[in-house]
Amino acid sequence: MSNPLVSIIVPVYNVENFIEKCATTLFEQDYDNIEYIFVNDCTPDGSISVLKEIIEKYPNRKSGIQIINKEKNEGLPQARKTGLKNSNGEYIMHVDSDDWVELDMVSSLIGEAIKTDADMVICDYYINYSKKEIYKKTFPISNLSSDDIIIKTLTLEILSSMCCKLVRKEIYSKVIFPVFSNREDMFVNLQFYSIIKKYSYLNRAFYHYNKANDSSITQNYENNKNINDLRDFYIVTKNFLQDNSLSESIRYLNIGLCYSIVSISNGNSKKLFDAICPSANNIKYIWKNNSLSFIKKIVFSLPFLHLEWLYVIIKKFYKTTKGRMYD
């Protein structure tokens, strides 16, 4: 098919101030054959009203737009699953409703998929703060084996987002969406990488991650639900690795979790390790993490050296001046 249908799935929650830019960049894509599926995850604000106003400005897109209203809030993974069930496209893209995209993202990624017959096309991305934009390169996975991709995903060397990629829909029939909402993207991507045989990579950024929104569906904080989610992620991912003859990769799971747990700690890393994954509580996992610079390895080692108070000070300073240390 020279002009395949692409379904773009957009969960909506608490993005009244951001969805206009998101929807506008989606409706102004230079590719015509697009289906838009907005999933209202019981947003408490006026996001849907704003979205409907924007839709009226694009009459040429209206016939390809669905707004699905969920009966209860179930979180990002289940919202995406709902969108997927209602999609008709040959290829799927996911976009978070507080983010935005370049106007030729769809045409560029689908063009690459057609040219290479790839099951997944990935691209670079931007991280956008209120006053600055950072270009981020995605690891060019097309030259790696599936096992290597899984290892680098577990250690956070490869971005685990569902966004900034295009995936053939039939791949999703073999994927389980988790109930937990912390590291849910990583769990889905690990399944992708155990299934997909053909990847392609575009060396250009098309996707903008908005880090100026503190209240969207994708933001995570140190609270009981997210701690429970991380623990559930560890258990489910460990079982997945064992079931797929990848038990040797569990130590890489510990590397990634060690970094993640220290990242969310505000002076209580021991408590978090005990609650989430005690086996990851080892300084060696910081120094084996190839995604960290030498300076970051030193900083993230502080809690293991009885200097967590200093780590907290550095973390607060970095957040105030540059953004989160782990972006």
UniProtKB/TrEMBL annotation:
UniProt protein name: Putative glycosyltransferase
Membrane-crossing segments per the record: none
GO terms for MF: hexosyltransferase activity
Entries under Gene3D superfamilies matching the protein: Spore Coat Polysaccharide Biosynthesis Protein SpsA, Chain A
Domain Glycosyltransferase 2-like residue range list: 7-174
CDD domains: Glyco_tranf_GTA_type
Keywords: Glycosyltransferase, Transferase
Lineage: Bacteria, Pseudomonadati, Campylobacterota, Epsilonproteobacteria, Campylobacterales
Matches recorded under SUPFAM superfamilies: Nucleotide-diphospho-sugar transferases (SSF53448)
